[in-house]
Design goal:
Strand content: under 5%
Shape: globular
Number of strands: 0
Distance between the termini: 30 Å
Order of helices and strands: HHHHHHHHHHHHHHHHHHH
Largest sheet: none
Helix content: over 70%
Structural class: mainly alpha
Radius of gyration: 22 Å
Number of helices: 19
């Protein structure tokens, strides 16, 4: 089978797995109000539950990465196990009536789903050359957005028709009966295939068999690009996490709308993320001219998205769609978009913000895959992700606390969004070190490939 065909199959398989995995995270968030009323919990409890889920999924990702890299375990079987276990805990969560039990079950779900990100990330890096990775990661990122939309949509619709527990149950069945079989059938690429193709143009007779060792940490920690990207990730993940967790509640509580209208309102804007693919293509195209253009595009995107998001949150709009039948509420929303140009403008501004927002994560993934050895990538990404999710979980919980104290989700969101300005500055610093670190890593990879072949010949 041709390598291009295999790439499409693998990306499709990972896409389906990622959609199901990502949707799991968002089957709770849209129904915060329903859960709060049913179980008698606070915003801080709900924010902390989501934050703990995210943070512990990050910690577990480092463990999963170590298992696959150091012990050379098959990634497909680790993914299969993680999806099966996560499905089981999600099913139990749909039955939980005690808030503490629900909290613990969500944490355990996050622990097992933590395997999906690093293993998928590594497989994509292995399959694609350096100058094609941003677009591949962009497709993967878009798929994550589809999973988020599925989670939100399924949560809102099924909760309205049945209860807030039903979407959790449905997701558990998806993890067990769709995600797990797909993972078991996953096609795994040769280790460092993309790097070998980037260097030699062919992979015939070439192998890369090195494992991660603790001594590799010196190379990782002396890599300035890693450090700058890590700090940038810590900074940018605060507003990103807060927006994901609280933006829906902002539309529901402060703009005055039911959850289904909030989903449509924000969903129209989030469609802008699909057009980030053009920025990703531009980043790959300019990479072949000069690699430093990749982080510079991320810096520009971070600055532009900040402007659009602040404008969106500053607009004095009200929907005031409450206490109506869902169908009537949706029709009323579209009617308001025609009558009130400010509401339409808000959708457009949010849409444009998401265009630039969506391109940053794929660029980050490409940069990290370029400046780390194949056996280090999953470990490095997982370590950064773990610290990132600590910041994200803390940010979500703190945002819930600020919301409780100030009574304003809008103010909370605007405070966190301004952190994107510092994120753009850090991407400029990445541009100063990226090319040098990339060439150093490529030289090491090249020498290791040669050494392996020499050993085989002997």
């Amino acid at each position: 089978m041709k390598i291009e065909t295999l790439r499409k199959i693998v990306l499709f398989q990972l896409a389906l797995i990622t959609i199901i995995q990502t949707s799991n995270m968002y089957i709770i968030i849209p129904n915060y109000n329903l859960i709060r009323e049913d179980l008698g919990v606070s915003d801080f409890f709900l924010g902390s539950m989501t934050g703990a889920y995210i943070f512990l999924s990050g910690i577990s990702s480092a463990v999963w990465s170590y298992l696959t890299e150091h012990l050379r375990l098959r990634r497909k079987w680790l993914l299969t196990l993680s999806l099966l276990m996560a499905g089981g805990f999600t099913y139990l969560a749909s039955l939980a009536t005690n808030p503490v039990i629900l909290f613990l079950l969500r944490i355990l779900t996050g622990v097992f789903l933590g395997a999906v990100f690093p293993l998928s990330y590594e497989i994509i890096a292995d399959f694609y050359e350096n100058d094609r990775r941003t677009l591949a990661y962009m497709v993967w990122y878009i798929v994550s957005g589809i999973g988020m939309a599925l989670g939100f949509g399924m949560s809102v619709i099924l909760a309205f028709l049945f209860s807030w527990r039903y979407p959790i149950y449905v997701n558990s069945m998806m993890l067990i009966f769709i995600g797990s079989p797909i993972a078991a059938l996953l096609v795994e690429p040769k280790r460092a295939l993309g790097d070998i193709l980037s260097i030699y143009g062919s992979h015939e007779g070439l192998e890369y068999m090195y494992r991660f060792r603790l001594s590799d940490l010196k190379l990782v920690l002396t890599n300035k690009t890693n450090i700058y990207v890590a700090v940038e990730e810590f900074v940018s993940t605060l507003p990103q996490g807060v927006l994901i967790a609280w933006l829906t509640q902002y539309v529901v509580r402060e703009l005055g709308s039911p959850e289904i209208v909030a989903m449509i309102f924000l969903g129209l804007g989030m469609l802008g993320g699909l057009f980030g693919v053009f920025i990703a293509k531009l980043a790959d195209f300019l990479y072949s001219r000069n690699p430093r253009f990749r982080p510079l595009i991320a810096a520009i995107s971070a600055s532009i998205q900040t402007i659009f998001l602040i404008i969106f949150l500053s607009l004095p709009i009200k929907l005031n769609i409450v206490g109506e039948d869902p169908i009537v509420a949706v029709l009323r929303f579209f009617s308001l978009m025609k009558e009130n140009m400010l509401i339409l403008f808000a959708v457009i501004v949010f849409f444009l913000g998401m265009v630039f927002n969506s391109s940053i994560e794929p660029i980050k993934n490409s940069v990290l895959s370029d400046v780390n050895l194949p056996e280090q990538r999953a470990i490095v990404v997982s370590a950064i992700s773990t610290m990132e999710l600590l910041f994200r979980s803390a940010g979500i919980a703190v945002a819930g606390l600020i919301s409780d104290v100030t009574g304003s989700i809008r103010l909370t969101l605007m405070i966190f969004v301004m952190l994107y300005v510092f994120s753009g500055f850090l991407w400029v610093r990445v541009a100063e070190t990226y090319s040098r670190d990339l060439l150093r890593i490529r030289s090491i990879v090249k020498s290791k490939i040669r050494n392996v072949n020499d050993n085989i010949d002997n």
